[in-house]
Amino acid sequence: MARGHAAEPAAQSALTDTGKLPANCHENIRQIVDYWVSIHPDSGLPGRQHFDPLEVPKMLSNIRLLDVVGDPPRFRIRLMGTRLREFFGAEQTGSWLDVLFPNLDGSITHTELLRTIETGQPRWRRGKPALDIEKDYLDMERVYLPFARDGRNVDMILTYLLCIDSAGNYY
């Protein structure tokens, strides 16, 4: 049966004030953020045109690309890595997040996606799943990376997601 989680007080969220990831984040999170920084143009945000999947092949299975559509923004899954398809139990490419997860509006996930758009900055979070899922993982660690085709207006968010089971194993 699906279960939702309220935001956990112990959940860690956002990057530090200096824009750095917390010391205890997973190395894969650090690597994908470092890659995002490396493709960042001199001015403005990187766009999808700057992202080369061949540069991060080992990370692709945990990536989900979200199209940001409309105002207020809705999120459509453009691409979903194989590990995430296994985790969520279905191919979700082409689906709207708010249709897949009716509790999206007002959730910490929705808040973090909106903050990513508003700030144009990466957002990191570790904590219980905030959306209805049918898996029982202890924690999830994720980072949201903004992309803007025109360098200014966020039109895509790359989500890198790791699931952590009760034994502390990352998937």
Q: What is the structure about, briefly put?
A:
The protein has 171 residues and is an alpha+beta fold. 20% of the residues lie in helices and 23% in strands.
Number of helices: 4
- Report the biggest beta sheet as strand number plus sense, adding barrel if it closes: 6 strands, antiparallel
Name the helix and strand elements from N-terminus to C-terminus, one letter apiece: EHEEHHHEEE
Number of separate domains:
1
What is the fold-level CATH name, i.e. the topology?
Answer: Beta-Lactamase
CATH superfamily: PAS domain
CATH class assignment: Alpha Beta
Low-pLDDT residue intervals, each spanning 5 or more residues: 1-11
Name the shape in a single word. Answer: globular
The overall average pLDDT, rounded, is 84
Provide the helix percentage.
10-25%
- Share of β-strand residues: 15-25%
Please state the CA-atom Rg, rounded to the nearest Å: 15 Å
Number of strands: 6
Explain what you see.
The chain has 171 residues and is of the alpha+beta class. It is 20% helix and 23% strand. It is built from four helices and six strands. The chain has helices at 27-38, 82-88, 97-100, 108-119, and strands at 12-13, 63-69, 74-80, 123-127, 139-147, 156-164. A hairpin with a 4-residue loop joins strand 2 (63-69) and strand 3. The chain is globular, with a radius of gyration of 15 Å. The two termini are 21 Å apart. Residues 1-11 have low confidence and may be disordered.
